[in-house]
Amino acid sequence: MTRSRSRILSVISLQLGLILLPGLAWADLVGQQSTCGTEPKKTVVALTGQEKVVDLAEGVKTEAWTFNGITPGPTIEVCEGDTVRIVLKNEGKVAHGLDSHAFRINATKFGPVEPGETLVYEKKVNAPGVFMYHCANGPLTDQHIKMGMYGVMIVYPRGQKLRPAREIVVSENGVYGEPDPKGMIAPSTERMDENRAYFVLYNGTLKHEPLEMKAGDLLRVYFVNAGPYTSTFHVIGAILDRAYEGGNPRNLVYDVQAYAVPAGSGGMFEVTMPEPGNYLIVDHDKLSQLPNGLGIPIVAR
Ligand SMILES: [Cu+2]
Question: What residues contact residue 38 under an 8 Å CB cut-off, 6+ apart?
Answer without folding.
Answer: none
